[in-house]
Amino acid sequence: MVLLVFKTVEDAFDANIYDLIMKAKGFPYLETHAEPYMRQLTVGEVVTGPLQIFHAIEKVRNIVFVLKTMGHNGFPVIDEPPLSEAPVLFGIILRDHLLTLNGSSKGEKIEDIQFTEEEMDMFIDLHPFTNASPYTVVETMSLGKALTLFREVGLRHLLVIPKISGCSCHCCYSAL
After folding, report:
1. Is the CA virtual torsion 124, 126, 127, 129 positive or negative?
2. How many CA atoms lie within 13 A of 61 on its CB side?
3. How far from the centroid of its chain's Cα atoms is residue 166's Cα?
4. In sequence order, what are the beta bridge partners of 54?
5. pLDDT, tens digit, for every residue of 109-154?
6. How many DSSP H helices and E strands does the chain contain?
7. Which domain of life does this protein belong to (predicted)?
8. What is the separation, in whole angstroms, between the first and last Cα of the chain?
9. What is the DSSP string of 84-97?
């Protein structure tokens, strides 16, 4: 009971102890509440590129090139015709999963993996390894709402899709 009262009083006068530790150690973290200006911005206004997508059936050479040149941790996977009528977001695949598919052991970098020319020309079906239900938001969502979603759910990746009037979402626009 004493600890509960102490913690309540401490939080009323000072920042959360965990937030203070994070700041002191210099770890990146999201603030608990969105800044007022974030309500005026949309996620479409703050996403950065370039966006790198993978097709659901992708050539090993393309995967290796992207992993060597991009530092992103997650990549949207798109189904295109003939698998669908129009390009559709299938899900998201993580860098670690792609490295494992390409023969990496734990902690190994893409630069350390050797491929033959024959292996580079092979194709990988990414469907079984893709998270088919990633969190997505429409590009017109307020940045404040997206920050709250990101923080409260503990997301690492949030896909931003374009608002297309009169039809369903066809492809991924960018990642926050």
Report:
1. positive
2. 7
3. 27
4. 77
5. 787 788 889 989 999 999 999 999 999 999 999 999 998 888 888 8
6. 7, 8
7. Eukaryota
8. 42
9. SSS-EEEEEEEHHH
Hey, which bits of the chain come out as E strands? 54-55, 57-59, 74-79, 88-94, 123-125, 136-138, 159-161, 174-175
Question: Does residue 36 have a cis bond before it (omega within 30 degrees)?
Answer: no
Q: Which residue has the tokens 């024959």?
A: 118
Could you read off the pLDDT of 89-103 as tens digits, one per residue?
A: 999 999 989 988 877
Q: pTM for the complete prediction?
A: 0.74
Q: Which residues are CB-contacts of 35 (< 8 A; sequence separation ≥ 6)? A: 144
Residue 165 is classified by DSSP as T
